Structure formats: C-alpha cells, structure tokens
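Weekly structure sync, notes
Attendees: PL (lead), two postdocs, one rotation student
Agenda item 3: pending single-chain targets
PL asked that the sequence for the first pending target be pasted directly into the notes so everyone works from the same version. It is reproduced below exactly as submitted, 349 residues in total.
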Amino acid sequence: MKLRYFLLTFFILSISIVFAQQKKSYKIITIAFYNLENLYDFEDDPLTFDDDRTPDGKDHWTEEIYNAKLKNMAEVISKIGSEITGTSPVIIGVCEIENRKVLEDLVNQEPLLQKDYGIIQFDSPDRRGIDVALLYQKKLFTPTHYKAHELLIYNDNDITKRIFTRDQLLVSGMLDGEKIHLIVNHWPSRSGGEARSRPKRIKAAKLNKRIIDSLFSEDPYAKIITMGDLNDDPTSTSVKEYLKTKKKREEIKLKELYNPMEDMYKKGLGTLAWRDGWNLFDQMIISTELLKKDYTTYRFYKAGIYNKSYLVNTSGRYKGYPYRSFVNGAYIGGYSDHFPVYIYLVKEK
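Predicted structure, written out during the meeting:
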C-alpha cells in the first residue's frame, strides 16, 4: 500500500512539473488491449473449428486447463497500469476469445470480480470462432452505441470465395461523463507469408479508416481510440499508408491519428516474437482531440507495453519470448504469446 501511494504521489508530482510547475491533482485511468491467445471454453461448438480445444482434441483442453488459463488472464488484466492507477483498466479490448461465456467466466475471476466489468461482444464469422470484445468498468463507462462492422474479403475478387475473418467492433459511450469512441480490431493474419497476405490487412485498414472517418464527419473533435492486434507493425503499409497514422504528436492536425507505438517499435520493442525477431502488432492509436494540452477533460499521457518479467519465458528455445500458454500442443502454464498494450488518460480533478 505504501509503495502504491509513493508511486501515485511520484506520478502526480511528475505531471505537475511537466505542466509548468502547477500544483494540481489529476485523475488517471488505463485503457488497454490484450490478445488472450485462443481463450476457448472446453466444449465443442459444431459451427466452428474448435475441435483442438476440447478434452479429446489435439490440445487436450480440459476444464482444469481452461480454469488455469482464466486465472492467468485475469491476473494480468488486473495488473495492467495498476502500479500508477492502483486499479485495473477502466476499458480493455480483447481478441482471440471464443464467445461471451469465456468473457463471463473471465470477469468473474477473483482479481476482476469486484471491478464489475460489463461485456460487449458479437459472434464473428471467423472460421475458428474467435471474436473481439470490449470489457469496461460499469461505474466509469456507459456504452451508448455499439456495432460490429463486417470485414468483407474475397479470394480473386470472387464474391463466392469469401474469406471469413473477424469483425471490427465499434463502441461509443460516456467515459466518466465524456464521449469517447473505441474500435477493437484483430486484422487478418500473415498466414501464407507477409506479402501474400498483405492485401487482406489493407482491406482491414480501409474498413477501420471508414469507421473513423464516419465518426469525424459527425464530430471533427471526436475522441477516438482504435486498438488491436493488427498483425502488422506500426510502419507497415496498412497502418502508415491506409490508416494514415503519424509518429510525431506535434505534427498531428485535426481529424488525424497518432500512433505512440511507432516510436517504441523503432527502438526495438515488441509485443510478440517470431524467429528471434520482435513485432509490435498490438497497437493503441488515438485521434487529435486526445492530444490537446487542455486537461480539463481526459487527454493522452503516455503509452506502454505491459511486459513484466513474469510474462517472459525464462528458459529453453523460446527464452525471452512472451510466456505463452501452449507450445506444440502442450499446455505449459503460461499466459499469452502477446504482451498487452495500454495508454494512460489523465484530467484535472
């Protein structure tokens, strides 16, 4: 408790220095995103390809393993940003979840139960049955509108050859009395190779940009956060050329997007590892209005990757990689193959 108080005091003092030595106190909240690495229940769904995640499947996905996975996911979520805020994220986007039931089981785990999280989730057409969703603390965020936007992709531009993938979830609502829009993404994977699969993610970026532009058309000063596992890095074509993100916040103009993850990526940081290299697929991208220096309403303070040591594999072939829950079809007791990402928002009390 003393450590938490010290950290919070240090943070407030640091903020005061940044803001022209003004002695003010600030509210601070965390908004996060986490790829939960195939959080399936242990029952067979005849409509999706979830056979591996059943007791008789390749992964021998039993109720005991499922409960262990839930406990681990809840532990991580409860800690994201907590060293500064003293609590779990007010809002968290998630992906690679099978259905609403796994989310209900997740938010009822002991570390999260008292936070009273609400759930917004739609079943997507993805063949594996995995969806995106939004969790939110009901006492601080009130949804007013939400919609799943279909991502339509076809092989060879043939409408009879649809590639079924995840929807993009738009949730609008009131955050502590302020209107905000959140989009949760899980763009198509790099299966088949980065170059060959690139057009699919460009399609996803175009859809995301249309959603954002429609929000800007209603309100040029809209507070927007688009987050997710984009399966592309901050410098990839889909993000830079089609979503049109920018690296330097001082260059952001009205109705534009700032990507705080780009600078992290260029410093060699990542959220997942592959063949001894790091990618930063998990991103939090924000609109102009959140960058203003008027802290009478919530504004962006900083972004981060939650990569604490307990989330890192300490031995073997995957030493230094995220400590995932499964390797070669065997449960190893870890968390996810992705690190979570987050941003802090602050405003004057």
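Discussion points:
- The two ends are 22 Å apart (CA to CA).
- The helical segments are 2-18, 63-79, 82-85, 100-107, 110-113, 194-218, 237-242, 261-266.
Action: rotation student to compare against the earlier draft before next sync.
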